User: Which sequence fits this backbone?
């Protein structure tokens, strides 16, 4: 009986070893999957690398608003996006070996959330580098100088040359923009608009007395020979720098900075800047 029991125990142990080896070799477990990663993906880094994620899906989604001369349509009804930022975004995507896709943000104030949820991959829209931006996303090195200016009808410009003279005016400003923040700092109320172009239209139509927009946009959109020849700007409320926004900790920041330095040295940055009349604002690299 004792011999039979020992034989049975030996057989059971052998069976357990076989079953254990079979389980370890199974391809259905997470640790045993030897399927190669999808084209363009890195099995070890794709979960943490934004660069691998972008190249794996083959598309760079750029969050923008309608903002001449940075991002805008060449003609009414066109779905194409052009402008200094748009053209450079196309060049960056090409450098990464992917296609570019532009997504117009309905709410500029929600740009960080759009990044975090991966609805977009970058914010590239003449974005001012400020405390709120730096707290919610990683940002490239600054590439352009800017400021917030007060826009009024040209025939009333003489009345509004000081900050004190702005009191009582009915302002418009893009919701969540640096222009709106400047007005809030001055305790001046305003009508929030979807974008800066809409704020300009408010003043042109007479619905608002004034608006605050980016200096670069003012240079392109108001004054003689522009879309709004009867508008002008008076005060510049601050000095700013533009940067491109990425998900917090994204390795795309380094990829962008390297691309920009190379494009600047090759003359591409200044060539595109000259096309859109922003060459005087570009920061030397």
Assistant:
């Amino acid at each position: 009986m004792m011999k039979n029991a020992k034989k049975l125990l030996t057989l059971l142990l052998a069976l357990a070893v076989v079953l254990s080896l079979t389980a370890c070799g199974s391809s259905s477990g997470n640790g045993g999957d030897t399927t190669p990663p999808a084209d363009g993906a890195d099995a070890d880094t794709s979960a943490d690398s934004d660069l691998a994620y972008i190249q794996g899906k083959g598309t760079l989604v750029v969050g923008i608003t309608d903002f001449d001369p940075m991002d805008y349509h060449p003609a009414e009804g066109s779905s194409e996006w052009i402008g200094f930022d748009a053209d450079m975004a196309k060049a960056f995507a090409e450098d990464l070996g992917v296609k570019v896709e532009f997504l117009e943000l309905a709410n500029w104030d929600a740009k960080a959330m759009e990044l975090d949820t991966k609805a977009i991959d970058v914010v590239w829209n003449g974005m001012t580098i400020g405390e709120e931006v730096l707290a919610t996303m990683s940002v490239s090195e600054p590439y352009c100088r800017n400021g917030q200016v007060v826009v009024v009808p040209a025939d009333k410009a003489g009345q509004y040359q000081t900050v004190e003279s702005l009191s009582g005016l009915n302002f418009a400003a893009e919701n969540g923009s640096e222009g709106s923040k400047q007005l809030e700092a001055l305790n001046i109320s305003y009508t929030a608009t979807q974008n800066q172009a809409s704020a300009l239209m408010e003043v042109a139509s007479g619905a608002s007395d004034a608006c605050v927009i980016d200096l670069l946009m003012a240079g392109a959109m108001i004054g003689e020979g522009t879309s709004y020849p009867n508008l002008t700007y008076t005060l510049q409320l601050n000095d700013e720098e533009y940067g491109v926004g990425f998900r917090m900790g994204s390795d795309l920041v380094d990829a962008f900075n390297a691309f920009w330095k190379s494009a600047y040295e090759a003359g591409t940055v200044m060539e595109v800047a000259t096309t859109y009349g922003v060459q005087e604002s570009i920061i030397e690299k």
Notes: Residues 223 and 229 are 4 Å apart (CA to CA). The longest strand covers residues 122-128.
